[in-house]
Amino acid sequence: MDQPLPYTRPLVALVGPTGSGKSHLALAIAQRFSGEILNCDSVQVFRFFNIGAAKTPETERRGIPHHLIDALNPDEVFTAGDFSRAGRQILHEITERGNLPVVTGGTGFYLRALIDGLAPGPVRDEDLRVRLVQREKRRPGSLHRLLRRFDRNTATRIHSNDLPKLIRALEICFAARLPATEVFAAGRDALHGYRVLKIGLFPDREQLYKRLEGRLEAMFAEGLLHEVQSILARGYSALAKPFESIGYKQALQMVTGNLSLKDALFYSRRDTRRYAKRQMTWFRQEPGLEFFHGFGDDPAIAAKVEERVDQWLRNDDPASDC
Predict the structure, then answer these.
(1) Which helix (H) or strand (E) holds 278?
(2) Fewer CB within 10 A of the end CB, N or C, for the chain?
């Protein structure tokens, strides 16, 4: 467990749905306030996944250090717990250099693991995971039904198609012989020694959807299919975790001849809209989040956020201490 520091250090977290301009605004904040950026996106941690992950190219990072981007090979496993452990170490290193950590990304569970911590749970059981995957392939929907039997509360919070979360919840239930809800209630290893300002970008939904459609079309036009082919050519399996993400999943189906470009764009648009909606729902429930209704690359919104960060840095607000 992190030991409390004799005084608290500042940490800014910038979140929002995909396409809301987080990366652009995070760069502006880091540049103005001597910051370093800690990536909080579960796809951007992987090497070679660039176009579909909307990574900021190195040439556009303004010399600002970025952490946990291109940190892993596509076939490596990286959990929320791994992110919490690695991210906390990086936070300490950034503050020791006298800089401001700016955490940004759209993976809400990563942020919660970093700041609030995770309840202790059993280690991964690879044999059990293989059996559960096989069960789901034989009888689609069976894992969600099984989880409802053992832990109805957790099942109501997990979509029936979210296989990784279903498997982890069942793994916890079987190993602990308790509902995952009870295991999670056992307590979390929260981050200590930091005061946190949480900023949430919430653009108009229809404007966001329009922007996302244009971004997806640009991704396919700018070489997403070639990027997928090049990753496979490096010897990585089509079953690698980041290939499950939106855009890559559809591009992979194009490579295998199972989707046309028209259909790939259709399903990518549909799934991206659904994902953005889920992200907004998640972040609206994030404790202490300050809402800004617009895009991060809108100069007016950026000015308001920067003003708020400046005000917060100059005024040590004990209510936001971790």
Answers:
(1) helix 261-284
(2) N
Please identify, in words, the CATH class of the domain defined by 9-118+188-320: alpha beta
pTM exceeds cut of 0.85:
no
The answer to whether residues 74 and 236 touch, using CB atoms and an 8 Å cutoff, is yes
CATH 3.40.50.300 in the chain: give the residue spans.
9-118+188-320
The CATH code for residues 126-184 is 1.10.20.140
Residue with tokens 């660039």: 50
Indicate the pLDDT class of residue 5, thresholds 50, 70 and 90: very low
CA distance 159 to 254: 26
Structure tokens at 207: 């404007």
SS3 104: strand
Instruction: Give 125's Cβ-side CA count (13 Å radius).
Output: 18
Please report, for the chain, how many H helices and E strands are present, in that order.
Answer: 13, 6
What one-character-per-residue DSSP string does 181-224 give?
A: HHHHTT------SEEEEEEEE---HHHHHHHHHHHHHHHHHTTH
